[in-house]
Each structure stands twice: as structure tokens, then as C-alpha cells.
Amino acid sequence: MASDVGFEHVDVVVVGAGFAGLYAVHRLRELGFSVRAFEAGGDVGGTWYWNRYPGARCDIESLEYSYSFSPALQQEWVWSRRYPEQPEMLRYAQHVADRFALREAITFGTRVTSAEFDTDHWAIRTDAGHQIQTRFCVLATGCLSAAQIPEIAGRESFAGATYHTARWPQEGVDFAGQRVAVIGTGASGIQAVPLIAEQADHLTVFQRTANFSVAGSNEPLPRDEMRERQAHYAEFRERARRSFGGVLLRQNRVSALAVSEVERAAEFASRWGTGGFSFMAAFDDLIFDPAANEHAAEFVRQKIRDIVTDPATADLLTPRDHPIGTKRICVDSGYYATFNRNNVTLVDLRATPIERLTPGGLRVGGQEYAVDSIVFATGFDAMTGAVLRMDIRGRDARTIQEKWSGGPTTYLGLAVAGFPNLFLIAGPGSPSVISNAFLSIEQHVDWIGDCLVMMRDQGLATIEAEPEAEAAWVDHVNEVADRTLYVKADSWYLGANVPGKPRMFMPYIGGVSRYRKRCDAVAATDYEGFTTS
Ligand code: N01
């Protein structure tokens, strides 16, 4: 295949054509750079291309989860539901790609396999034989894109069909008449379970950790609400940029411990009624104070006991091993109530893990569960997986695997010392997965664009994070995380879901507003913490 692909020289290679890659292609071309992007999937959309499992939808409201860079795009795109479902998100990505003629810069169905730095450029290679010399490389590889299937003995022996929620077949799956197993009860499992239960003959859910979930009703978005937002988009976007997570939640500034029991219960009940992430904004200290958090956790535990009729099942579904919100809280539609159906069984893997897969199903605690299909809702090697699956070599041919052997270290989540002219979008060390992805993506791409323009204007060839600046930033990221309860949970934020992955809180939890100010200040002070040449 290499024969029909010659050497190419461009200013920027963008890896990935999800929402980060799409905006990077658009913005950098707009600034006059030549850009080439590669995307492993067959089309644009990233997360929203791959995650087609039943029930897949966003847990941030559609009025907030979209691009702000184009006022015209904001005026022409009309969301149909309060929480965008996967097909609508994918249509939005496709619309953006067409509207801004982005596909012409993207090669689909092609993975970047290696990137090697030499003097002042990167040599990029793909699995289709492309070889490209580029001055800059932008990794828009996604934080939840490297799907994880656990090593389970006998996996190859299973004779039925297996699926991962993040690699769902394009044509969909019909589970009618089947006995189905779902392994995993994170956000993906919790969204898929109610729908699979409606279709399958019997569904067995294999749970290792009980999870907190808050219902989020997904009614159609009223046209007048959409029009109202369109009339004031600029103002809302600006408020989101100045918020903590990039989402305009109704944040109560009061401590959960400063109000009476009756007031506390009323606030939680009101938030439960609203649904979604707003629950964790019920009080100001839920993510900092264990006693405050426990009140919120107990409210949800009681809801589970109220909803689930079988006390033993309710007990198993009740999370007790982590503070609420420290594993990303789930937003569901009827998850707990699904366990009242007589075609749904819950199996506890905490007491007895899966021993092995067999040709006919799974064996747990000496018992055989016969199934026709297995759905792995087992998550991702988050934030670093997609980067570490490539062979990236920086200065002195040092690999990224070696550099990050103790955990991902970055300067501002944007750059890595020893890897000049390489940028991450929403990388570890930035608000990323703990924020509204669109807002954080746009902020990073705009910052990178400005940086490249500065380099062009000043005739600079390289920019590289300084090791001291990187170390200080990593300390700051850890210090901020250590003030929260997040570090108490075995979550994917800490890499705890991947055997052998160094434990390190990866996103920056100091808030998008504070983070943006810091990035702007670095740019304004002649890129303090970076060395240029
Ligand atoms: O993945 P997860 P996910 N044996 O890692 C279990 C975003 N997202 O795809 O908790 C048995 O959360 C694992 O158990 P445990 C969102 O940010 C958003 O669901 O490690 N079980 C867990 O239950 C989310 O947080 C949306 O003990 C095993 C599950 O598999 C992130 O993506 C929708 C196992 C994995 O849960 C990831 O969510 C979907 C094993 N060997 C996703 N290995 C929305 O916008 C793992 N598990 C709503």
C-alpha cells in the first residue's frame, strides 16, 4: 500500500477527527496552516461515532454541549432533546464536517501508528503506509477512546457474540429472544441495561462495583427554549467559560452541614426531580467534606431502596465503597427500576469474580450462567490509553511510554517536556473529562492556534515545555485533587480500572475558569515555562 502514498510535508498533523480534531482542523486551516488529519473510524465524530450502544446519550444538556466558535452554526443547528442522543451527536459532527469542508483534510479508516521527532519536525506513519513530515503534531485522540476488555480466562472459547459498548456495530444489534450478559455498571452499562432488558429474553447484569446514578428525563427540547438560547448564546457561553466545570449548573453556595435535615432533604429531592449532574451542585461541599457527601450518598441509597422491590437486589445495587460523585456520577433512564423486571438478574462480582468464559457463557462462583451474547461495558484505558497505544518518540528517541511510566506528566495538559512541537487536546493535567468537553476543546485549540501564529510571526522552529514547569504543574494538579474526595475512589480518573496503570489523578480539578486564566497568563508572558528556538 505504501507505493501509492508518497512523502508529504505539512505544517500540522492532527490525530483524530472527533470534536477536538474537527475544530483543530478548522481553526488551524483558518489561520493559514496546512493541515492533514487521520482518523481510525470510518467517519467523523470520535466518541459519538463509536459508542452506538442502545441508550447512548450525553449527560450534559444539548444547549451547552456544542461548539461556540461559529455564531452562524449556533443559529442554524436546532437540538431536538434536552440530552443529545448518540445519533443526533453524530449528525452534528457530520454537519460541522460538511459545513466547514473539513473532510477534505481527513483520511478515514487510518490509524497513526508512530510519531518520531527529529530536530524540528515530526515523522508520522500510519497503518496504511502514509509517511508525513510535519512541523507540529496535535493529538486529538480522545480521553475515552481506548476501549478496555478485561483479561478473562477462556475469553476466546465463548461461542456466542461479544460486543464492547464503545465498538458497537454500525448496523445495531437485535437481542430479541436472546439471553444476554452485560458486564460492567459504569455510565455505559447503566444507559444500556434498561434498553437491552426490554429487548432480550433474559438479561444478567454482572456488577463489580455498585454505582450512583441520578435519573435524567430526556424530554424533547421545547422550541422556545432553543430560540431563547440562540438569542443569547454568546452570553451563556461566556458565563460557562467563567464557571467551574463549563456547565451552567444551579450551584448552591451553602454547605450541606449548615442547614437542617428537613432543608437538606428538600434540596436533594428538588435536585433529584430536576435530574442529572445538578444533583451534585445541591450543596457547596459535597465533593470536599466526607460528612456532607455522606448525606447526598444516603439520599440516593434510600432512593435505590425505594425503587427496587427485592431487598437483596436493592442491597447489592447500593454503593458503599466510594463517596458519591467521585466516580463520575451516572445519568440514567430507569436503571434501578429495570431490576424489578422478571427477566433481569443481578450477579455480584465483588464476592466472586468471573472465573472464566465458557463456550456457553460465564462461570462465576462455581455457577454457570448460560448466555447467547456478552456485552462488555467495561470502559476505557482513559486519558492516556490512546496516546500510549502509539509509538511516540520525542527528543533523543525517548518514548512516551518511558516518559509516562510513573503516570502522565504534562505542562498544562497541553505539552510534554522532551516532546517539542507536540500538543495534546484535553490531555491529562487539564480540566478535560471533568469539564464540558466542547468548551475545553475550543480553549485548547484556540491556545494552540495562537501559539503557532506567534511562532510563525517570530520565525521560531520549536517550542517545548520545560521540565521544571511541567513538574510544578503536576504538583499543582495533585495538590488540587488532594483537597477533594475524588482521590478516595478507585476510578478511571486515577487509572484504577486498568491493571498495572500508575495511580495518579489525571484531570485538573481547579475549574475551567481558573485554568483558562493560567493558560492565558502563560501565553501573555512570552510562553513562560516553554523554551522556544
Ligand atoms: O466505563 P467505566 P463506562 N470484571 O469505567 C466494570 C463516559 N461516558 O464506559 O467499577 C468486572 O465507568 C467496572 O467495574 P469497577 C463517562 O465519563 C459518558 O461505563 O471497575 N467488571 C465498571 O462497572 C464515564 O464515566 C456517558 O469495579 C469490570 C465498568 O466495568 C466514562 O465514559 C455514557 C471489569 C466500567 O465502567 C466511562 O464509562 C457513557 C472486570 N474485569 C460513558 N473491568 C454519558 O455521557 C471493568 N469492569 C452519559
From TrEMBL:
Keywords, A to Z, come to: FAD, Flavoprotein, Monooxygenase, NADP, Oxidoreductase
Pfam (any one): Pyr_redox_3
Its required cofactor(s), as named, are: FAD
- Return one GO MF term: oxidoreductase activity, acting on paired donors, with incorporation or reduction of molecular oxygen, NAD(P)H as one donor, and incorporation of one atom of oxygen
Q: Where are the transmembrane segments?
A: none
Is the keyword NADP assigned to this protein? yes
The family assignment reads:
Belongs to the FAD-binding monooxygenase family.
| Protein name, per record | Cyclohexanone monooxygenase
- The source organism is Cryptosporangium aurantiacum
